[in-house]
């Protein structure tokens, strides 16, 4: 870090809010609840009891990390936006938001809702204050409270400080840690600031999709493909190393890489040169391959976000047909593990073999996931782990993720899934069980002859005998 690139100073809230601050588009919506706002007000009032003659007379609210935008006219808030927005909201209610205090910020439904709710809570509280309590509080907030303002001229450095600052406090979402890590890794590869901003903006705009993508899907695929149990809570700060990998040496320096890394690095640089028609890269991402740090990681995340979104939205062909069986259950909590396992299997299959057999792969994935849910009266994640790994009572169950990882052809995987021996399910009125039996009969009997012609299926007679052992 260059000495001129970082500026650290303690400033009052009045001084902070006079700065040309803005919440960049890549930041998350405003999500503070009324309880957070009222607690901040209470803390500020309580701090006014300190002896003015002591060093404790000024109340430190926290740290605000800002990045001086390339245009040089504004400061993007990298960390501390929830507090800054709340301070503006409190001062607006008090009628003290003046002297050039303004904040450019995103406009979205979630932000508007929380602004409205918190404004109402602040007004309700302060309407009950008597005498000069409001003016005293405004003075205390503006001149008796302070923040540590850290300004960086480089976005990657700002995120590095954000990373280390939050590591000492409230635990960040693992995807925030990954974002900060890979943003820093772009410096060595010479990625310019505008490209960094573009990647971070896209990441943050799709944060609601990025978190489950890594936490519930890519993380589990990585674990189960290695015959490891996944954690019930999904990806955490102790597990993010699986999404860190090869540092790029800079174009032309590929020989500096270890031999096993060289092919991946060379392919990445070549894909950047071949990219046309506005495409970012033609690199052939694979979940099982080592992650390339920096810009490639953000492209990796966008690639799999797009694939998963096709399945979850299922509003275009072939996904409308492929996901038709699972759609009736996506909004029912008790089938959450079933639907997640379905999408995890399908995503991994598509990643390795493409979309040529997407409809049939989706059928097999649904049957496999549905059997797990319907064979259990209650389902915990420990059971999902054992089912995916073929452990304990599921020892006869196919290790689907290993099969996908090791197979040369998608048809071999589908054939293997079709031949899994399953114990029969009890007959009852459960709609999903009836649906399962109907689908199994329809798919397996209807397609058995055509699959046999491909060389990957048993004859229909064998299939019927196998069906009786379920």
UniProtKB/TrEMBL annotation:
Residues 461-470 have a biased composition (Basic and acidic residues). Residues 196-424 form the DUF7834 domain. Residues 447-470 are annotated as: Disordered. Pfam families: DUF7834, GmrSD_N. Residues 21-182 form the GmrSD restriction endonucleases N-terminal domain. It comes from the Bacteria. This is Uncharacterized protein.
